[in-house]
User: Fold this.
Amino acid sequence: MRLIILAGGIAALFLASCGQQPGTTEEVPELKGTIVVASKSGNDVYFIDRETGETLVVLPTGLEPHEVEVSDDGRIAVVCNYGDRENPGNTLSVYDVQKGKYHKTIDLGEHTRPHGMQWVAGTNNLLVTTEGSRSLIMVDVKEGAVVQVLDTEEEVSHMVAATNDFSRAFVSSIRTGNVAVFDLETGQLIDHVYSGAGAEGIDVSPDGTEVWVTNRADNTITVFDTKTLEVLAQLPCEDFPIRAKFTPDGSRFLVSNARSGTISVFDAVNKLHMADIKLTPPVPADTDAERYFTEFEGTSIPIGLVIPDNQFAYVANTRSDVVSIIDIGKLEITGHFQAGREPDGINFSHLKPEN
Assistant:
């Protein structure tokens, strides 16, 4: 299915599908809130109306922003400024979602190449991986200060995921394939467990019992028990699995595969592969269509992934400069909207900018 929906058209599509899904009693959620997308080549961040696909506001970031994180109350969005090859970044850009305004920049000092982030619910604190200093740092966003530094002892410490009670955090290392495991209550490094070559995408199940890691060089997913660190399963995946997320109810696990241009969907309870959804976004402006669909096979490079509810997922397509909408129940793409130049990190707030 190839359907292109630009600003104003998304609402019409979903109005037709409101109500119950076949074979379920769950209603399709209201498409409220804001999709927040970091535009890597544009050095800016887009705040997009989830219901209509309209860009509400575009604000500047630092050099080459990668990931986006949103506070648990939806009021604050944070973008990590990773930098380019010659200029390593060491800042976080902070935004007020409701006001639709830039708030401040946090200088991380010696902690360069900030990348993975997770907000510690109920606090002002943010977990951030910093590749340049091989660290997992804790940042007090309100105070704008680094308050804790944990050495991962791993090169290219890329992404982080924590258990729902924030007792443990897991940091994946692309270079070593290891996952560093931390006790957040004591600040101690518990262990390193091997996941697979190119360990990168990572998420903890909503109930806090399992951590799933994508291994981009092995094209596999490794599932660990968060307490015992025992390997529970290893699943094959499509080419170059790079980001991963659970649905809020924990029933599904989605993976963006950068080289195959697909989103893999797994039954997380039974650890079974369900489908691979091929992304066929619109041809970018000023692009030769014939070359695009032959040389690149008509795909984008899916990277960032956010799942606001159990029905819909949103995927940042770097090559095509769009975000694609996936209906998780139907296992199909239902539309796309524009999202700057090389959209990468992506997140969601239930709030919307006032202006």
Q: What stands out?
A: Helices lie at 10-15, 289-295. The longest strand covers residues 88-96.
